[in-house]
Amino acid sequence: MRLFILSIILFGIALTAKAQTSALGGWIRSGQKPVAFASIKVLNSNIGTTSDSLGKYSMKLSTGKYVLSFSALGYSPYKKELTLRENETVNLDVDLEETGSAIEEFVVTGTMKEVSRLASPVPVEVYSPAFFRKNPTPSVFDALQNVNGVRPQLNCNICNTGDIHINGLEGPYTMILIDGMPIVSGLSSVYGLSGIPNALIERVEIVKGPASSLYGSEAVGGLINIITKKPQNAPAFSGDVFTTSWGELNTDLGFKFAAGKKAEVLTGINYFKYGNRIDNNKDLFTDVTLQDRISMFQKWNFNRKENRQFSLAARYNYEDRWGGDITWDKAYRGGTERYGESIYTNRWEMLGTYQLPLKESVMFSWSLNDHDQNSVYGNTIYDARQKIAFGQLSWDKKIKAHDLLIGTALRYTMYDDNTPATALLNGLNKADKVWLPGIFIQDEIALAEKHKLLLGMRYDYNSIHGNILTPRFAYKWMLNENNILRLNAGTGFRVVSLFTEEHAALTGSREVVVTEQLKPERSYNANLNFIKKIYFKSGSFIGIDASAWYTHFNNQIIPDYLSNPNQIIYSNLQGYAVSRGLSANFDMTFTNGLKIIAGTSLLEVFSKNEASGKKIRPFLNEKWTGTWGISYKLENLNLGLDYTGNIYGPMLLPRLSNSDPRSGISPVWSLQNIQFTYTGLKKIELYGGVKNLLNWTPGKNEPFLIARSNDPFDKEVQTDAAGNVVPSAANPYALTFDPGYVYAPNQGIRGFLGVRLIIK
């Protein structure tokens, strides 16, 4: 009987306790930006919830003590101990810190519409500024070195110009966008990623594979879209200044202000200076190009009725860079007394977006840019100018299960230089002017709750090459919330401007030979992508993003360095080329503060000539790569640790001939960095570390990197009656001056220190 009564009492207590509930809620943000679909969990239980699309959350809990975990992909997890009393309503707002890439981001690049990354039928990789802060760099070009499948490739040992390789394909196959506009192309393709103020970057979106059905020419191998911040989401002021033991100085500033009640303005300024003549490899040439660069960017967002979009932006970039003989100065510019490569760049850009005042969603986007380059490569003068105007009108319409995007675009390109690219048969010069009107349609079809189909088609008319048609197909199967399968297929095309893209054609002493009228390149691509999300009861998370791809090229333009050591011969490939491979990205977040982002890619790129039947592997193309970023935060010390790096497999290198003593294959090489960040000061972060920890440089195991740096004008080179170089006492290897043997940065180990200030 006593036991029965005791049981009744205990049961009553349990019911009472169950009834004694409390309410918990609040907002989850990162700075001023809401964090949608963040996970809120009670540790050591099955209780949890998620924030909504605006970052708001709420939950009911019994009275007692709890340890709550707040987490979201791309943000550091946050834990909070909390005691809830009977019938208490507690408001708890949480500010999460960004850490890098994220699966749950909203993207626009894949479909030209803002959608959740998981909802997009096109796989898009997203990288936030926090990802790039793990290894601070003075330009977006350098920052991309830790993105899996993306490699900044230097093309000149002296001027240090370069381009971006995606999945083993060379830079001209990568399209660069700023806010969806084709700002960076042609002449600016090797400089356009320098000087974009980091303070203004909201995120970087990367699509691997053709996107010509939406974006037209150049989007053959992939595209990179740099999304700038909206003024309302930016801090009132941000400043980031760092310097290195080599003497580099990078300053990045951003601030915003209200222009009355109708507009908000965001301004960014970037200044980079490097002026030390370092020659560690003792070849009497600068190891690193000297630079003096300033870039200014301003963006206006106008407040309109019904939240219609209207934004205007402009950027100006000036750069003075040179490399060469360490005794060179501007008095020798263009002469034959001292060899130097000097490049002056003046560039301005304007872009805007305006949503028409209609019931339908109709958007007009436009951009203008002017790139003026005055450069000399020894005594070779390259004076070039490029103007690009672009306009696009698009209509976004939903009809039941169909999400339509219909648009028309017009692109005008004017290019002029003093090379054979724009020379007539009579020797006179004529600017190259190309009109490229196009129309496109895209239909995203919701077949069922878990199935989505995307069909797209684009028609362009090139005023020189005629009609170009590029279809597109994509299918997404959401097996469940944690498993997503995507299949993409499409075509791409590229119209070549040789001298704007191939700096090897300008530097050195080789003659450039173009054997025919170069035809547009065509590509056919298929990509299979799988995303897997694994959540653990502890609050930890592992995300896997794996892809397999195959790309087939016709009319690919292949530079021939081997047939004649004194020439670079360009022609369309009489055959086909292939790029195929596998890649995987891993995103791991643990409740103890450890965060790991890692990736690996296996690649095979080759061309096959119909006549010979031989497979030819291109130069400067790795068979495998790896990247990583390991972060850990010591909360008690307010100290963050970031260890980043990359590793590349062997590449074929462009030797001049069989007698060239330089290696024909590169070693396995790696660039690794470590950084410490102190966050114990209000609004201020202090950071520092070491770049290139292993002190690896490409010239350590080579007799020289630059062929005949002692005779850059080939004054002591002897030739036979046929013009072939012959060995001599002054030239035992029968070489000519050649700075094109480069595959990695020539900058050794260096320390760096920096400070960030953010006022929200």
Helix-residue proportion: under 10%
CATH superfamily of the largest domain: TonB-dependent receptor, beta-barrel domain
Pick out the low-confidence regions: 1-19
Give the number of domains.
2
What's the architecture of the largest domain, going by CATH? Beta Barrel
- Count all strands and give the number: 46
Report the sheet with the most strands, covering strand number, pairing sense and barrel closure: 22 strands, antiparallel, barrel
- CATH C-level name of the largest domain: Mainly Beta
**Dominant shape:** globular
**CATH topology call of the largest domain:** Maltoporin, Chain A
Tell me about this structure:
By secondary structure, this protein is mainly beta. It has two domains: 20-95, Carboxypeptidase-like, regulatory domain (Immunoglobulin-like, Sandwich); 227-759, Maltoporin, Chain A, CATH 2.40.170. It has five helices and 46 strands. The strands form eight sheets. The chain has a 22-stranded antiparallel β-barrel.
What descriptive keywords fit this protein?
5-stranded mixed beta sheet; 760 residues; single chain; disordered N terminus; mainly beta; 2 domains; 53% strand
Summarize, please.
By secondary structure, the chain is mainly beta. It contains five helices and 46 strands.
Secondary structure layout:
Blueprint: H1 2-19, E1 21-30, E2 33-34, E3 39-42, E4 48-50, E5 56-62, E6 64-71, E7 78-84, E8 89-91, E9 94-95, E10 106-107, E11 115-116, E12 125-127, H2 129-133, H3 140-143, E13 150-154, E14 162-166, E15 174-178, E16 181-184, E17 201-208, H4 212-215, E18 222-228, E19 237-244, E20 249-259, E21 263-274, E22 290-302, E23 310-324, E24 340-355, E25 361-377, E26 380-399, E27 402-416, E28 432-448, E29 451-462, E30 466-480, E31 483-494, H5 498-501, E32 511-514, E33 521-535, E34 541-554, E35 557-560, E36 567-572, E37 575-589, E38 594-609, E39 615-616, E40 624-634, E41 639-648, E42 669-681, E43 684-691, E44 718-719, E45 725-726, E46 750-759
Parallel strand pairs: 1-8, 1-9, 15-18, 32-36
Antiparallel strand pairs: 1-2, 1-5, 3-4, 3-6, 6-7, 10-11, 12-17, 13-14, 15-16, 17-18, 19-20, 19-46, 20-21, 21-22, 22-23, 23-24, 24-25, 25-26, 26-27, 27-28, 28-29, 29-30, 30-31, 31-33, 33-34, 34-37, 35-36, 37-38, 38-39, 38-40, 40-41, 41-42, 42-43, 43-46, 44-45
